[in-house]
Amino acid sequence: MGPNTISRLFAGRLHYSWIVLAVMFVVILASVGVRATPGVLIVPLQQAFGWNAAAISGAVSLNILLFGLVGPFAAGLIQTIGLKRTVLGSMVLLVLGAGSSAFVTRIWQLYLTWGVLVGLGSGAGMVGLATAIANRWFVQRRGLVVGLLTAGNASGQLVFLPLLASLVVSHTWHIAPIVVACTILALIPVVVLLLPESPAAIGIPPFGSTDIVDLPPLSGNPFAIAVSGLIRGAKSVDFWLLFTTFAVCGFSTNGLVATHLIPFCMDHGIPEVSAAGLLAAMGVFDLVGTTASGYLTDRFDSRVLLFWYYGLRGLSLVALPFTHFDVISLSIFAAFYGLDWVATVPPTVTLTNQVFGRKDAPVIVSWIVAGHQIGGALAAFGAGETRYLTGSYVPAFLASGLACLMAALMVLRIARQPSAVAVAE
C-alpha cells in the first residue's frame, strides 16, 4: 500500500492532493504539540531546578528564533533534496530534541535540546512548507489549503496542551516531552508511505488542473537558493512591509500568548490545567478562524483582511490585562483572540505569491516567516524578562497590542502597485 495504490483506489472519487493535505495536517499538528510543550513546563522547571522565568524563556526564545531563521534554508532543501526528505529530516530532529529534553538537569542542556534541536526541526515546517504543498499540489483552493495547514497550529494546541498539562500535574514534567517525541516518531512511517514528491510522481495532475507537470530536477545549493531569495525580496518595499507586519504577528502570538499566557493566568490564581484549557479553547476558535481566513482569502482583498485581523488582535491584547481574569472575560478573550491567532497566514502567503510569483514564494515567504519568529523570540524573552524585573506581564501585553494596531495600518500599503519583481506564473 502506497500513494500509487491509494491514488488508483480513489480515482474519480477523491483527488490524492487531499490525502497529502491530510497527512501534512497531522504532521504539523504533532509538531505544534512539540513546540507548545514549553508553555506547560515553565513553572514546573522553575520549581524543579530553581531556574527563573527569564532563563527558561531564553531557551524558548532561541527555539523560536531558529524556527524562523532555518525556514528559508529548509525551503531551499525542498528544491535540493526533495519534499519528503526535508520533512523526514525535520521530524528526526524533533524526536531527538524533545526526547532528550526529558533528561535535562542543567540550563545549557535545555538550550541545546529545546532551543537548538527542536528549533531546527521546527523550522522545516509550517508556512514555507504549507506554501510548497499548496503551490505544488493545488491549482485551485490554495488559500484554503494554506489556511487548513496553518490551522494545524490550533489543533495541535487543542489536542496536546490539556493532555500535557494534566500529565505534568498528575505525574512529572519529564513525561510531557516523551509523549510528544513518541507521537512524532510514530508518524515517520506514515510520511514514508503516503507522501509522494509531487503529483507527477504518481502520474496525476494537481487538483484543479488537467496537465501533469514534472518538477524540475533536484539541484542547487540550499544556502544559495535561500540567500538569492532574500536578495530578490529585499529589493522590494512590499517584502519589508510583509516582513515587519509578520514580525508583529509573531510578537503577539507564539512569542507572547503561546509561551506566557499560562504563567500569566497562574499569576492570577488560575490552575495550570485550567490555563492550558484556555489555550486549547483558543485553538478551537483558531481552527475555525484560520480555515475561514483561507476561504475568505480566495475571495477578498488580502490587505483588507489583514487590517481587520491585526486591528482586532491588538484590541484584545490591550484589553486583557484590565479584565478580572474570571470565566466570562477569559472566555470572551479566548473566542475573540482565538479566531485571529494565525488567520494572518493565508492572506500573507497570497500577497507573497502576488508580488513574487509562485516559483519563488516558498523561499521568500520563509524569510517573511523568519521575521515572524524574530518577533516571537523578542516577545518570548522580553515578556519573561519583564515578568522577572517588574513582577508583571502587563507591560508586555500592552506593547504587543499597540504593535498590532500599528501593523493594521502598515498592511494597507502592501502591493498597492504592480511589483516590478513579480514573475509570471
Shape label: globular
Mean pLDDT: 84
Return residue spans where pLDDT drops below 50 for at least 5 consecutive residues: 418-425
Provide the helix percentage: over 70%
Distance between the termini: 35 Å
Summed up, the helix count is 18
The major sheet is characterized as:
none
CATH architecture: Up-down Bundle
SS content category: mainly alpha
What series of H and E elements makes up the topology?
HHHHHHHHHHHHHHHHHH
Any idea how many domains? 1
**Proportion of strand residues:** under 5%
Using only C-alpha atoms, the radius of gyration works out to 20 Å
- Strand count: 0
Kindly provide the name of the CATH class.
Answer: Mainly Alpha
CATH topology: Growth Hormone, Chain: A
CATH superfamily: MFS general substrate transporter like domains
